[in-house]
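Fig. S4 source data, part A: sequence.
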Amino acid sequence: MSRSNPASVCANIGPKERQKRLLFGIFGLAIALVLTIYLRMSGAPWWTGLVTLPFFLGGWTGLFQWQHRVCIANVRRNVRNMDEGYEPVTDEQLRQALEAEAAKVQAKALGAGLFSVLAVSVLGLLI
């Protein structure tokens, strides 16, 4: 692993696993948007946009895991899956770097998810 490329240093998922996260993220956001459109078209109150929060959170989490090459669940289990099955993470520096990346992914996903729901709710008030 090259220390000059932080993404390669901190990766705990391989290309196939990243593809799964990307698809999960796209589908999660698509479901959230379809649900948002349905709620707006059906005349539901603005606050029903909160129903979309789990879908936005899941979608953003998937996309940020894909972007950062880090699976939060793998970090918690102290394993990595580079497309050849699970293997334990034994390097302490790598484990700490993965934990830091996972925290970034979670923070970004939470921020993006809450912003998305807020935007949906504000649009609901304006429409």
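Fig. S4 source data, part B ends here. Residues 6-126 form one domain.
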